[in-house]
Amino acid sequence: MFAIIETGGKQYKVQEGDRIVIEKLDLNPGEKVVFDRVLLIENNGQTLIGNPYIPNARVEGKLIEQIKGEKIIVFKKKRKKGYKKKTGHRQKLSEVQIEKIIPDYKKAKPKTPKKKETPEAKEKKASKSNDKSVSTDQSEQK
What we know:
Blueprint lengths: L1 E6 L2 E6 L3 E5 L8 E4 L2 E6 L2 E4 L8 E21 L4 E20 L16 H23 L1
């Protein structure tokens, strides 16, 4: 079973037991995290797709630690002008362990593929619509 969740303006594909690194959450390590913006859940061939989110579905996890990302160096220069500026940035991140994926099958309906129409069924529909159009044309001419 896997799910696609949205947090911090990004989407993540998660399974139970995964560790993901996401944008910083204002929680302490060891606290429980609940992601309620679940876009998709796949469970043994049964797929739930949200519009945009699946109602009452959630993914639960535990905050492992607050970390910093790699340093990004920003260097600006204008040649022949003596202008140089060097700055850096380290993004604050949170590492989360996914514990449970909880779909709500009561309210969300699983997406099932539609049955394809046979050519015979299509011909019957076409012939019925043609019969109706012919009969209305004759009545208009009278």
